[in-house]
């Protein structure tokens, strides 16, 4: 690990201003992703700004009947909150499908959204990787790509976003609240938080330098059967090959987002018009632009079958 300096931020605005002005500064929350990357020297921040003491760890009801989840709320606490379990069950289910109990006790809402890909070549400094070292090439294209993306990918990068929680937040139409270095705040629809790789896969989000996530707001509950199915190579401690977050209403309409297939939680609203026709029709719309590799072609069929299982369960 390279030497670095450390400080505790005193307010969200202070954290944001310092992160923007100090070269090589990064926020640290639970540290479960960032510290691993630092140990491997994949990330080498010169200065860490600890945002744990900023009071951003509350879950509060909003005036319009939604829920505001502080950026520092731990994954365990969010999954266990009775309001979340009752009204946003897809979120609670996605959270408990992720990582392990110990990790969820430490991992935070913002850190989970901003965790980096699990592409094996990204974690191997001896291999070219456009995301780790822009312009060096992509080892996964033509390499081992079983775990990687089938849609939303590019000639420069086929990595997936690893978060389970983000897939549920996408289907719930969450909004990410931030404070910018000048002190101004903004609200970003979760659909616009993560960027597709294009030819700049190292630019992963729409956040500007130093912008701090302060909360994630969930709109008022939409009801329905809310399910999250995650298919993975082992029952625990594994990232999704494919996951499905779905909200299915009694009349058969609903919403669907996929995880494990794209560089961001993958939702195509137009595909949801086919909900009553079943999984095949919805998946055809969701993955119409899929460009799988020979290694991961199975994910297209797996997504359809996983969605079929979700719809069957939702309809009882
Ligand atoms: C063995 C293992 C298995 C795992 N399995 C899964 C899994 O199955 N599913 C899953 O979804 N996840 C899984 N994870 C990932 C885990 O959920 C993430 O590491 C965790 O959610 C990150 O949260 P954190 O608070 O520790 O983030 P940190 O490591 O502290 O930060 C992550 C990133 O977010 C930035 N950041 C943190 N807070 C803010 C903020 N408020 N504003 C702006 N930037 C911020 C940091 O600068 C950093 O870049 C696994 C992790 C491990 C180690
Ligand atoms: S898929 Fe993306 S993260 Fe993986 S090696 Fe290629 S550029 Fe790097």
Share of β-strand residues: 15-25%
CATH superfamily of the domain at 225-314: CO dehydrogenase flavoprotein, C-terminal domain
Secondary-structure-based class equals: alpha+beta
Distance between the termini: 52 Å
Largest sheet: 5 strands, antiparallel
Which ions, cofactors or small ligands are bound in this entry?
Answer: flavin-adenine dinucleotide, iron/sulfur cluster
Overview of this structure, please?
Among the domains are: 5-52, Uridine Diphospho-n-acetylenolpyruvylglucosamine Reductase, domain 2; 225-314, 2-Layer Sandwich (Enolase-like, domain 1). The protein has 10 helices and 11 strands. The protein has helices spanning 12-21, 34-39, 75-80, 82-87, 89-96, 101-106, 109-114, 165-171, 279-286, 298-314; strands at residues 5-8, 25-28, 47-50, 59-61, 67-70, 175-179, 185-189, 212-218, 225-231, 242-248, 254-259. Strands 4-5-8-6-7 form a 5-stranded antiparallel β-sheet. A hairpin with a 5-residue loop joins strand 10 and strand 11 (254-259). Helix 5 runs antiparallel to helix 8 and helix 9 packs across helix 10. The mean pLDDT is 97. The structure holds flavin-adenine dinucleotide (FAD) and iron/sulfur cluster (SF4). Residues 117, 119, 121-122, 129-131, 138-140, 148, 157-159, 201 line the site of iron/sulfur cluster.
Show the helix and strand layout:
Blueprint: E1 5-8, H1 12-21, E2 25-28, H2 34-39, E3 47-50, E4 59-61, E5 67-70, H3 75-80, H4 82-87, H5 89-96, H6 101-106, H7 109-114, H8 165-171, E6 175-179, E7 185-189, E8 212-218, E9 225-231, E10 242-248, E11 254-259, H9 279-286, H10 298-314
Parallel strand pairs: 1-3, 2-3
Antiparallel strand pairs: 4-5, 5-8, 6-7, 6-8, 9-10, 10-11
The chain binds flavin-adenine dinucleotide and iron/sulfur cluster.
InterPro entries: CO_DH_flav_C, CO_DH_flav_C_dom_sf, Diverse_Substr_Oxidored, FAD-bd_PCMH, FAD-bd_PCMH-like_sf, FAD-bd_PCMH_sub1, FAD-bd_PCMH_sub2, Mopterin_DH_FAD-bd
Protein name: Xanthine dehydrogenase YagS FAD-binding subunit
Pfam families: FAD_binding_5
């Amino acid at each position: 690990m390279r030497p670095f300096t450390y400080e505790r931020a005193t307010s969200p605005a202070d954290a944001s201003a310092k992160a923007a002005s100090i070269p090589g500064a990064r926020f640290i929350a639970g540290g479960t992703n960032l510290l691993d990357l630092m140990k491997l020297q994949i990330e080498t921040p010169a200065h860490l700004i600890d945002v744990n003491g900023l009071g951003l760890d509350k879950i509060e009801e909003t005036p319009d009947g939604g829920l505001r989840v502080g950026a520092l709320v731990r994954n365990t606490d969010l999954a266990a909150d009775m309001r979340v379990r009752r009204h946003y069950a897809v979120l609670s289910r996605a959270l408990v499908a992720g990582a392990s109990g110990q990790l969820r006790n430490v991992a935070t809402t913002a850190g989970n959204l901003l965790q980096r890909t699990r592409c094996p070549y990204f974690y191997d400094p001896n291999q070219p990787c456009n995301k780790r070292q822009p312009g060096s090439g992509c080892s996964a294209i033509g390499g081992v790509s079983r775990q990687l993306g089938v849609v939303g990918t590019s000639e420069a990068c086929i990595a997936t976003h690893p978060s389970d929680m983000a897939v549920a937040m996408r289907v719930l139409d969450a909004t990410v609240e931030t404070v910018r270095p000048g002190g101004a705040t903004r609200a970003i629809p979760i659909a616009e938080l993560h960027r597709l790789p294009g030819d700049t896969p190292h630019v992963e989000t729409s956040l500007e330098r130093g912008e701090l996530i302060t909360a994630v707001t969930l709109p008022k509950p939409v009801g329905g059967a809310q399910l999250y199915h995650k298919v993975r190579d082992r029952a625990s401690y594994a990232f999704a090959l494919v996951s499905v977050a779905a909200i299915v209403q009694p009349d058969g309409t609903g919403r669907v987002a996929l995880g494990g297939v794209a560089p961001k939680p993958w939702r195509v609203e137009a595909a949801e018009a086919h909900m009553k026709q079943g999984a095949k029709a919805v998946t055809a719309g969701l993955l119409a632009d899929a460009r799988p590799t020979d290694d991961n072609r199975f994910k297209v069929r797996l997504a359809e079958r996983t969605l079929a299982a979700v719809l069957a369960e939702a309809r009882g």
